Amino acid sequence: MTVRAHDLEQRVARLELQRLERDAQVDQLQTQLDAARREVVRAMAKLQTLASRAEAASAMAEAEVALQSLQLPAGQVPPGIVEARQLLAQASDEFNKGNYGGALYLANQSKGATGTGRGTLGGGDLTTLRAGEVLFALPISLQTMGRANVREGPGAAFHVVFTLDAGTNVTGRSYADQWVRVTDESGRTGWIYYGLVGRRAEAAR
Fold first, then answer.
1. Fold held by 1-48+122-205
2. Distance from C-alpha of 94 to C-alpha of 83, rounded to nearest angstrom
3. CB atoms < 10 A from the CB of 180, how many?
4. Taking Cα atoms as reference points, which of 147, 153, 86, 148 lies closest to residue 114?
5. What Cα–Cα distance (Å) separates residue 7 from each residue in 155, 166, 181?
6. What share of the chain has pLDDT > 90, as a percent?
7. What pLDDT was estimated at residue 119?
8. Strand-pair category, 197-199 with 134-144
9. Is the pLDDT of residue 50 over 70?
């Protein structure tokens, strides 16, 4: 394979992985929009009592503890964690204004965003990233397209640590060149060639 052909193949792989990431982000945004709509409906119907100062303070403290408990990879902060920090700061502002209901809502949103960020970090040891490794914005639901070897590192020269059958569900955590770091449903982690995985049918709908 010529150098030019290799570079083109790497570019195609990178674009395909970025497309998978964007599709997953769109799905997540739609879910968040639906949740926001439900929250607005509940607020308009006035079915919830006003939050007390103590409830808001407790939720904010829980959100802060959740953030502080994370071990983040050097040099990269997952978008979910960035959002969680912003939401917690907004909750603090609303609390200082005496809007305890708003502070409680934002603190709970912060905890949810922290959970999303924790999920991004959840597969394997991502506290140390390999050279060229890029975290996905959020975990991506994938499925093997055929029988596939999962390797210790991002390349065919790395040792095979386990093999997955066709149709196995895995979660994509990050990528490097043409390889995706995945975690299977039993918690095993390794690297798989990008051409051997695609989005799960239920995630693509």
1. SH3 type barrels. (2.30.30)
2. 17
3. 28
4. 86
5. 15, 28, 21
6. 20
7. 57
8. antiparallel
9. no
How distant, in Å, are the alpha carbons of 4, 97, 101, 113 from that of 75?
A: 31, 35, 35, 20
| Euclidean distance between CA atoms 154 and 158, whole angstroms | 7
What pLDDT score was predicted for residue 166? Answer: 92
Q: Return phi, psi of residue 171, to 5°.
A: -120, 125
- The residue ranges of every structural domain in the chain are 1-48+122-205, 49-121
Q: Which long-range contacts (CB under 8 A, 24 or more apart) does 146-149 make?
A: 146/196, 148/192, 148/193, 148/196, 148/197, 149/192
Paired residues of 171 in beta bridges: 141, 183
CB neighbours of residue 6 within 10 Å: 11
For residue 137, the model assigns a pLDDT of 73
Q: Which residue has the higher pLDDT, 177 or 37?
A: 177
- CA-closest candidate to residue 119, choices 102, 86, 141, 103: 141
> What residues contact residue 29 under an 8 Å CB cut-off, 6+ apart?
none
- What tens digit of pLDDT does each residue of 101-154 get? 778 888 888 887 777 666 555 545 555 677 888 888 778 889 999 999 999 999
Alpha helix locations (H) across the chain?
A: 3-45, 53-68, 79-96, 100-121, 201-204
Q: What is the pTM of this model?
A: 0.51
